[in-house]
Amino acid sequence: xxxxxxxxxxxxxxxxxxxxxCAASGFxxxxxxxxxxxxxxxxxxxxxxxxxxxxxxxxxxxxxxxxFTISRDNAKNTVYLxxxxxxxxxxxxxxxxxxxxxxxGCLRAPGRYDYWGQGTQVTxxx
Length: 126
Fold this sequence. Notes:
about 50% strand; 7-stranded mixed sheet; about 0% helix; mainly beta; single chain; globular
């Protein structure tokens, strides 16, 4: 069974950091581009970041550039999202997803992704 499982979410104060992990089972992540998405209550799902198959190309939403870093460890079949300088507006459920690669890069459009995790809650609040 193909499965993605996110972990690492939680409650953090503004300015704090969290590292999310996305682990795959039942398939090999290195065939796929991986995206991180988030959805806050009442809002549409937003593409936060994505990483190409090789890890050589990444893409970030303007709202997280300079604060979030996506990386992958294909040997561990895991993708990470390091989130620093967190703000209350980063509060959302965060999802990882796997999709077909786009050339040598990736796209942050949710429709490009076929396999989704169940999500992990990130709450930034004092």
